[in-house]
Design a protein that fits this description.
mainly alpha; two-stranded antiparallel ribbon; about 75% helix; about 0% strand; globular
Length: about 260
């Protein structure tokens, strides 16, 4: 197994990884705090929540398997070479675990706070059922052939697909309401910073190893960062340019 060539780059890699972990982990709290203060989840799209929970569960399965499982790591090295480093760091596993817990907590808030008639769409329910049914089928297929790297790659593909579509319902809701009230911009700013530092961490590893394998060997992490940057910039434009905060009854409507 390959090792680091530069201590400085290794330290930078670890620092960037944990900065990304902190930023991405903290990004869950502004929305939860906003919901608590408003005692309402009106403005938060429920399809986004369900798809987000599916995404983070799939990402946790991928990260934890590749980081902890010797069998998966062995198959990774067989495919990409014994000298290649495993492209998942401890901060990736920690983030995924935290993300599942905090997204679950936000789902709990939906159950107890004012919803304003909002509900999960039938399309979202259908997508979720198809995704997990397909994942179960892949699991039983891998069980026979012991294709564990292929199986976790399926979960990595799920998280990429869910990241690509999970933001769409919220962006569309903001467009229809011509407002981002109830949708925390603090979440988006932290999410964006986490994506940039996550991508930079991968770049540091490539620089040290003189290889781009970690980018396509963990294509899910690469695409995750790019997708998050795209949609976060879209939400920033919606919040600050298209639908800025306005005065209501001589008071300012504020988002956390």
């Amino acid at each position: 197994m390959s090792s680091w060539h530069s201590l400085g780059l290794e330290v930078t890699y670890q620092v960037l990884g944990w900065v990304a972990f902190c930023s991405w982990s903290l990004s869950f709290y502004p929305q939860a705090i906003l919901n608590y203060h408003r005692k309402s989840v009106v403005g938060l799209n429920f399809d986004f929540l369900v798809l987000n929970l599916t995404k983070h569960m799939a990402y946790l399965i991928y990260n934890a398997s590749l980081y902890f499982s010797p069998a998966v790591q062995r198959q990774y090295h067989q495919k990409y070479g014994d000298n290649e480093m495993i492209p998942v760091a401890l901060n990736d596993v920690a983030f995924s675990t935290h993300a599942v817990l905090l997204t679950g907590f936000t789902v709990l808030q939906v159950l107890i706070y004012e919803r304003g008639g909002q509900r999960v769409s039938k399309v979202c329910v259908a997508i979720t059922i198809v995704v997990w049914a397909s994942a179960a089928g892949c699991f039983f297929s891998a069980l026979r052939s012991h294709s564990w790297l292929w199986l976790i790659s399926v979960f990595n593909s799920i998280q990429v697909a869910m990241t690509a579509i999970k933001y769409i319902p919220q962006a569309f809701m903001n467009f229809m309401r011509k407002s981002t009230v109830g949708w925390s911009i603090g979440n988006i700013l932290l999410d964006l910073f986490g994506a940039v530092t996550n991508f930079a961490q991968m770049g540091i590893q490539s620089l040290d190893q003189h290889s781009l394998v970690n980018f396509y060997g963990n294509i899910g992490k690469t695409l995750l960062s790019l997708e998050v940057v795209f949609f976060d910039l879209l939400f920033i434009v919606q919040h600050y340019l298209l639908y800025p905060i306005r005065k209501v009854n001589n008071s300012t409507v504020e988002d956390v």
